[in-house]
Design goal:
The structure is a single chain. The chain is α/β, with parallel strands linked by helices. Among the domains are: about 15-110, Rossmann fold; about 125-295, pyruvate-formate lyase- activating enzyme (Alpha-Beta Horseshoe). The chain is about 35% helix and about 15% strand. It has 13 helices and 13 strands. The strands form 4 sheets. Strands 2-1-3-4 form a 4-stranded parallel beta sheet, with helices on both faces. Helix 7 (about 180-190) runs parallel beside helix 8 (about 210-215) and helix 11 (about 325-340) packs antiparallel against helix 12. The chain is globular, with a radius of gyration of 23 Å. The two termini are about 45 Å apart. The model is unreliable at about 1-10 (pLDDT under 50). The structure holds iron/sulfur cluster. Iron/sulfur cluster binds next to helix 5.
Length: about 375
């Protein structure tokens, strides 16, 4: 699954101030990606080979003269939709748009897909990026990967994704450990002393003694490459026992070197979420909570009553790192509570603003008041 990124230095520098594009210039629009957009990097290489001046842009009104505007959108959502509307209105027929946010089935033509990415597109980038494998043998209902990339297969050797001069690599593989010879892939990273960010998380279910030993030798990093970190996922309560068993094989890792991406807002109830977060909390492992994002072609899960138990334990969960990220989940839970019951659950509200953004508490309560009132009205009309 997709991992939200902790921003690194390249992010600030990605959109350089540019002269307005002329008619022949190619403008590449990175609509919403939060890491370098590999498709745009390959397209940039292709266009430069054709002697085009390539501009990476965010605000496109400036480049209205260009007749060659290519946009890539990764996510779906209101922000992305409004940006796409703006792009269509600014560029009309000159615009071509692709990416999983628009159509998961769209592919770059083979002659572009096979090119080395143009690393100069993102100034300040100091790591290679790419896939060793694509696809996944699983078919999780919330995930775009089975629709987009299909079955798991190897697509490149390590040499093809490492960038000369850097031994840092962001791997975008959907499920690297599920590959039948994942051990060989890990050995390659170890022997080349590559610092690697497993960007889409590792599937803990595939860890056995061999893989565990190799992972312990792998220089796995966070997205900033500043600290040792292994990302896994814990998207359902049913996985807790498996995670417990696999963590025993990784006992030499510190809790601070582990992070579990926990998706919420899809099909888990409050009791499921409390079980997942309490499990991590007991082990002093911090979650990285991630709200389910609808993706084109994937049905959003049918709404259900989220609160199936007392929310009180939520208000007592504290993690050693990543507290603000967990507060985002708590804010979402507080809103769900107001929607479901037509009132605020103050212990949760107090917990959310216990450490950070205390000044924003009144505003949060005010925004929930609207939710609460419309929920009350709905409940009254249901009862009458
Ligand atoms: S296991 Fe495969 S299908 Fe499931 S979330 Fe991960 S990548 Fe997607």
């Amino acid at each position: 699954m997709r991992l939200p990124q902790e921003r690194n230095h390249f992010f600030r520098e990605r959109f350089k101030a540019e002269e307005p594009a002329q008619r022949r210039d190619a403008v590449l629009i990175d609509v919403d990606s939060i890491i370098p957009n590999l498709a745009l990097m390959k397209l940039s290489h292709y266009l430069k080979k054709r002697r085009k001046r390539v501009i990476l842009a965010k605000e496109t009104g400036l480049h209205w003269r260009s007749r060659h505007v290519y946009a890539s959108s990764v996510f779906q959502g209101l922000h992305t939709e409004s940006r796409i509307r703006e792009l269509r209105s600014n560029h009309g027929d000159s615009l071509q748009i692709g990416g999983t946010g628009v159509d998961p089935a769209l592919r770059l033509p083979d002659e572009i897909e096979s090119l080395i990415p143009d690393y100069s597109l993102y100034p300040g980038m100091s790591f290679g990026i790419g896939f060793l494998t694509r696809g996944c043998p699983h078919r999780c209902s919330f995930c775009i990967v089975p629709h987009k990339d299909g079955d798991l297969r190897k697509v490149a050797d390590l040499d093809a994704v490492l960038s000369p001069g850097w031994n840092r690599l962001v791997l975008l593989d959907d499920n690297l450990l599920a590959y039948h010879d994942a051990a060989a892939l890990l050995r390659g990273l170890i022997h080349r002393c590559v610092a690697v960010n497993f960007n889409q998380t590792l599937d803990i279910r595939y860890i056995d003694e061999t893989i565990a030993k190799l992972l312990l030798q792998t220089d796995s990093r966070d997205y900033s490459f500043k600290k040792r970190l292994f990302y896994f996922s814990l998207n359902s309560k049913a996985l807790i026992e498996i995670v417990r068993e696999k963590l025993a094989l990784l006992k030499d890792l510190k809790s601070s070197e582990l992070r579990f991406v926990c998706m919420y807002g899809y099909d888990t109830s409050l009791s499921d979420d409390i079980a997942r977060f309490s499990f991590l909390c007991q082990r002093r492992i911090s979650p990285f909570t991630q709200k389910f994002q609808p993706i084109q072609g994937i049905p959003t899960y049918a709404p259900f009553e989220y609160f199936d138990c007392d929310p009180e334990p939520l208000a007592h969960l504290h993690f050693p790192q990543n507290g603000r990220n967990f507060e985002r989940f708590l804010k979402w839970a507080g809103r769900k509570y107001a929607e479901q019951f037509g009132r605020l659950y103050m212990p949760l509200v107090d917990r959310i603003f216990q450490y950070n953004f205390k000044y924003a508490k009144a505003h949060y309560i005010n925004t929930l008041a609207g939710t609460r009132d419309s929920s009350r009205k709905r409940r009254i009309s249901k009862d009458s």
